[in-house]
Amino acid sequence: MKSTSRDIRLRNCFAVLRHLIADAPTSRQILARETDLSVATVSNLVTDLIELGVVVEVGREDSGGGRPRALLAPNAAGGVMIGVDVAETYVQLEAYDLALTVVDRVEERMEVSENSPDQVIGHIASAMDQVRGRLGDRAVLGVGVSLPGQVDVAWGVSGFAPNWNWHDVPFRRLLTERLELDVPVYLDNPLKTITVGELWFGDGRGVDRLAVLILGTGVGAGLAFGGQLYRGATNSAGEWGHTTINPAGPECRCGAKGCIESYVGAPAILRQWAALGGRPDTGSQTEAMAALAAAWEAGEPSAVRTVETVAESLAAGVANLLNLVNPDLVVFDGWVTAALGDALVPEFERRLAAHAMEAPLKAARLKRNTEERNMVALGAAALALEGHLNRLNTVGSRSRR
């Protein structure tokens, strides 16, 4: 689809605001240099953002002989964005100011049996009530919610959440009615929200071609080009975990055989450890992965062999991604990366060159996410911030004299 002048202006607006959030206070001149935009373009965008209450002037600095330059910062005292991370065992809600700094946080634990839409929405509503009671008169500008599974972004529908057996749940409508908030609600899945979080406040800021690999119970690849999340025709882009590396391999939960996820997803890793004589039945899946990491650290042969086997499959899968997408940066994220990364990532990197083409391998930087903040909730809030800017008619619509 051809970009309109409004699309281009909004992309530029996002780029300016991302740099401003990361480096405030700063000036129009520095923002122009960092974004490769003209000073005039940046000045026009900043004027819009100031009028929208998103940016404020916070002082002046010496310009080296000319007029003092105005210093800019996000309007941290303005409205707030809500980011909600919905997982199988918890709901975490975070309120962010316009600098994407957390101003409040609530976590609601959920039993595995609490998996109906009404029960999940009840936990979100409970967390929202607590936060709204503490925000006072600060306006909520938007709510972003990350849901597991496949999400229809345009219609606000949870298309398919396999672990909850949800099919075509009109989640946005149900949540909006329950919260009684007259603000837009944006839905997506963790893969997309983490990628947006990386674009706004992580390693992906300023990166032209970004891939974020999520290693967890399932696996996937969030993709972003030119500072924008790439969704594909049906919001299905990034289902890297369901690409095939062995047509005769084990059956995946998607029904196909030999998917990457069936080799490097958490259940697959623990099955391989059990087959090699390990003990993956220690408590929860998270506890079992921690036990595997500890066993590898202790040099237990079954754990060492499991890590080597998983690393070989991961290298083949990542090589396919590098050869196809040719990204500048690949960020590894997800709870399996956090739990097993010290063992798995070095082994994977040693094997990657045997599978990837030389040019894309040399071009790509590989990095593990080191952010301690909840990137799912942050990304959900950033989606709401993007939506807030996009729905305001004044952005890009005022004629300049």
TrEMBL record:
<dbReference type="InterPro" id="IPR036388">
    <property type="entry name" value="WH-like_DNA-bd_sf"/>
</dbReference>
<dbReference type="InterPro" id="IPR036390">
    <property type="entry name" value="WH_DNA-bd_sf"/>
</dbReference>
<protein>
    <submittedName>
        <fullName>ROK family protein</fullName>
    </submittedName>
</protein>
<dbReference type="InterPro" id="IPR000600">
    <property type="entry name" value="ROK"/>
</dbReference>
<dbReference type="InterPro" id="IPR049874">
    <property type="entry name" value="ROK_cs"/>
</dbReference>
<dbReference type="Pfam" id="PF00480">
    <property type="entry name" value="ROK"/>
</dbReference>
<dbReference type="InterPro" id="IPR043129">
    <property type="entry name" value="ATPase_NBD"/>
</dbReference>
<dbReference type="Pfam" id="PF13412">
    <property type="entry name" value="HTH_24"/>
</dbReference>
<comment type="similarity">
    <text>Belongs to the ROK (NagC/XylR) family.</text>
</comment>
